[in-house]
Each structure stands twice: as C-alpha cells, then as structure tokens.
Amino acid sequence: MSTPKKGTDLSDVTCNRCGRVHREVSRETAEAQVENYNKHLRGLEPKDRKKWPEKPAEVSDYESCDGCGAFYLDFRDAKPGDCPVGATLGAIISRTE
C-alpha cells in the first residue's frame, strides 16, 4: 500500500476506533462528488430511481467513518497491512481541512 503525501486527495487513513481504511479527499472534492451524485439522481426516471437510496448525498456523509461513525479528525495515516488488497475504500474529508 502506498501512502501518498498527507492532505492530498490520495492519502489513505485508518480510523482509530474501528480500523477501517478510507481515502482522504478535500472538502472541495467531496462537494463536487455530492453535486454530481445528486444531479445524477435528479435525472433518473422514477422507475430507475427505485434502485438508488432515497436520501440525497451530503458533504456531511464524508465527515465520519463508514464503519463506526468516528469523526474524520479521529484517523491516522494508514500503514501497510491496515487494508486487504482489493478492498473498496470509502472517501473521507482530509484531516487538514
């Protein structure tokens, strides 16, 4: 596992409470992803919309651990072995934001 420079949109971080690994993104990146996701949802036909979550995305979704809900500041730099190869990483706001 490579650990890019802290604060970039590519840093891997580990939750101090549950050990789940996430990928740090800037708040700006999170805002853009939320906007794109919600725009996609609004453009779906009602029959297709049923396959998607009812709740629109929010930037606050990027502020806590997907596993235990820990706040984004309660993370540390990821170390080799923290995450199995091939695992999907959820995005989380960078600790430098």
Order of strands in the sheet with the most strands?
Answer: 3-1-2-4
| Secondary-structure class | alpha+beta
Q: H/E order of the elements? A: EEHHEE
C-alpha Rg (nearest Å):
15 Å
Distance between the termini: 23 Å
Taking pLDDT < 50 over at least 5 consecutive residues as the criterion, the unreliable ranges are none
Q: What's the average pLDDT? A: 90
**Number of DSSP strand runs:** 4
Helical percentage: 10-25%
Strand fraction equals 15-25%
Give the overall silhouette. Answer: elongated
Indicate how many domains the architecture comprises: 1
Strand count, sense and barrel status of the largest sheet are: 4 strands, mixed
- How many individual helices? 2
Short description:
The chain is an alpha+beta fold. The protein contains two helices and four strands.
Question: What's the topology here?
Answer:
Elements: E1 12-15, E2 21-25, H1 27-43, H2 46-49, E3 75-77, E4 90-93
Parallel strand pairs: 2-4
Antiparallel strand pairs: 1-2, 1-3
What attributes characterize this protein structure?
97 residues, elongated, 22% helix, 4-stranded mixed sheet
